[in-house]
Design brief:
Residues 44-506 form the Aldehyde dehydrogenase domain. This protein is α/β, with parallel strands linked by helices. The chain has helices at residues 2-5, 13-25, 72-89, 94-110, 112-123, 127-147, 186-198, 211-224, 241-250, 263-275, 298-310, 327-344, 363-378, 410-413, 429-436, 452-461, and strands at residues 38-40, 43-45, 52-56, 63-68, 154-156, 164-171, 174-178, 201-205, 231-233, 254-260, 279-283, 288-292, 320-326, 382-385, 400-403, 420-426, 441-442, 444-448, 466-469, 484-485, 488-489, 502-509. α11 (298-310) links the parallel β12 (288-292) and β13 (320-326). The radius of gyration is 24 Å and the shape is globular. The structure holds succinic acid. The site of succinic acid has 11 residues, from loops.
Length: 513
């Protein structure tokens, strides 16, 4: 463990706490055995090349661990292990899988605080948010432990007296699960919970910035008794990620690929999967319209705005992105959000008490956000608040408001994935819908109005897969999460989240006298 190598006495309070938490989640293992390893075929392993890469704390740039920098050789070993394990895991009963998922869920609950601190250390999100993500993440394991027992088939009416027609559901095979850095815990459980419930085995490829949560969670999966090879974790630096992605999307032993991340990477993986006709689940970028009508209750809308925009400092696929505000409430609502952003957002290290707004994940994300803000201002947007890197330095960015945005303003055209509120005033419902639908992605959207007819009318026409109506927090294990247009394919969570991982097999019983 690099923290330990650097000398216990030189560590800050938070670093010492992190080390203690890591030890705690690992059931107080010997310090020298702290996990900085990947997990293949039930073994904790290094990269075959012996290489490692550092994991940084985005709040201060310090190295918190060094983990295996694996490449395609390691990925192939993981695929072989998952494929071998599938031959027995596929034959377990739903009840057996359910019991193991429930044990994994219980361990996640027991280790919630340690896992939350680990999450804040590697992803930078405020501790209260990490605790929220832990509850959210664990809830997928609980949900899919229950759903495992309800993956039923169908008996349908045959057109012939001599036949009976039955559909059974079977696990699809080995699943590649490629997960993002913005929800290092919940995006793994949302995929792995569904895959395991269906009887698939999997290889998890966590994001380069946040592999530690994946390692910790899979450690708990092992402790829960999930057999070797059923869950595997392959870690790698940014440099090796494309090669691993290629193996995970083209290998003939892979049947399903589930990816959460950007639309360009999703497109590439989809193209790779097309060659092998693999099943895909893609949860890609959004650019969520957040529409405030004259008939909105502005107090409710403000609370929804704060959570929909500032969860994870705006680095969420379903963050409000394009704010459309009707002229009758425009001045009042813009004043309210400016005031709330100035007085309620406390920027800093997510481990510190009271902080509710952390750093961005890495330098390239900060450069992207800053570049889009500058380009938007150059294109005619007006900066009402913020607009530059925060005086704290590092990866902190100022909560920013840009008004006077048009469809072609860079922060409207491209998902900003940061703490930037781009605003446009509109006059009519038709105009709001036209602007909201004028993009090629459609993950989430938000509508604020107390007029029920208007809520229904707009919800029917808004081209997104999910809509918050007078609500800014729509995520839950029970929800069917996913998008339309170039925001992806398939749904995660809910009972539909299992569909990607199971196949229908049609049995026709003939010759009945
Ligand atoms: C995401 O940003 O990819 C997921 C957000 C969520 O599940 O709420």
């Amino acid at each position: 463990m690099s923290l330990l190598n650097s000398g216990w006495r030189t560590l800050s309070y938070h670093q010492k706490r992190l080390v203690r938490d890591l030890l705690k989640y690992q059931g107080v293992r010997n310090m020298s055995k702290m996990r900085e390893e990947a997990y293949i075929d039930g073994q904790w392993v290094s990269a075959k090349s012996g290489k490692t890469f550092p994991v940084l704390n985005p709040a201060n740039g310090k190295v918190i661990a060094n983990v295996p920098d694996m490449n395609e050789t390691d990925a192939e070993l993981a695929v072989d292990a998952a494929h071998k394990a599938f031959q027995t895991w596929r034959n377990t009963t739903a009840k057996e899988r359910s019991v193991l998922l429930r044990k994994w869920f219980n361990l996640m609950e027991e280790n919630q605080e340690s896992l939350s601190r680990l999450l804040t250390a590697e992803a930078g999100k405020p501790l209260a948010e990490s605790r929220g993500e832990l509850m959210y993440g664990s809830s997928f394991l609980e949900w899919f432990a229950e759903e495992a027992k309800r993956i039923n088939g169908e008996v349908v009416c045959s057109p012939a007296r001599s036949r009976e027609m039955i559909f059974i559901r079977q696990p699809a095979g080995v699943a590649s699960l490629i997960t993002p850095w913005n929800f290092p815990n919940a995006m793994i459980t949302r995929k792995a919970g569904a895959a395991l419930a269906a009887g698939c085995t999997c290889i998890i490829k966590p994001a380069e910035d946040t592999p530690l949560s994946a390692i910790a969670m899979v450690d708990l999966a092992e402790q829960a008794g999930i057999p070797p090879g059923v869950v595997n974790v392959v870690t790698s630096s940014r440099g090796n990620t494309p090669a691993i992605g290629r193996v995970l999307s083209t290998h003939n032993k892979i049947s399903v690929l589930s990816f959460t991340g950007s639309t360009p990477v999703g497109r590439l993986l989809y193209e790779n999967c097309a060659r092998g006709i693999k099943r895909v689940g893609l949860e890609l970028g959004g650019n969520a319209p957040f529409i405030v009508f004259n008939a909105a209750d502005l107090k409710t809308t403000l609370e929804a705005f704060m959570v929909a925009k500032f969860r994870n400092a705006g680095q969420t696929c379903i963050s409000g992105s394009r704010f459309l505000i009707q002229s009758g409430v425009y001045d009042e609502f813009v004043g309210m959000i400016k005031d709330a952003m100035e007085t309620r957002l406390v920027v800093g290290d997510g481990m510190d008490n009271g902080v509710n707004f952390g750093p961005l994940i890495n330098q390239s994300q900060l450069n992207k956000v800053d570049g889009l803000v500058k380009a938007s201002i150059a294109a005619g947007a007006e900066c009402l608040l913020g607009g530059k890197p925060h005086e704290l330095g590092g990866l902190f960015y100022e909560p920013t408001i840009l008004t006077n945005c048009a469809e072609t303003t860079p922060c409207f055209e491209e998902e900003i994935f940061g703490p930037v509120v781009g605003i446009r005033k509109f006059e009519t419902e038709e105009e709001a819908l036209q602007i909201a639908n004028s993009c090629d992605v459609g993950l989430a959207g938000y509508i604020f109005t107390q007029d029920v007819s208007q809520a229904w009318r707009v919800a029917r026409q808004l081209e997104t897969g999910m809509i918050g109506i007078n609500e800014g927090l729509i995520s839950a294990a029970e929800a069917a999460f996913g998008g339309v247009k170039q925001s992806g394919i398939g749904r995660e969570g809910s009972r539909h989240g299992i569909e990607e991982y199971s196949e229908i097999k049609y049995l026709c019983f003939g010759g009945i006298n």
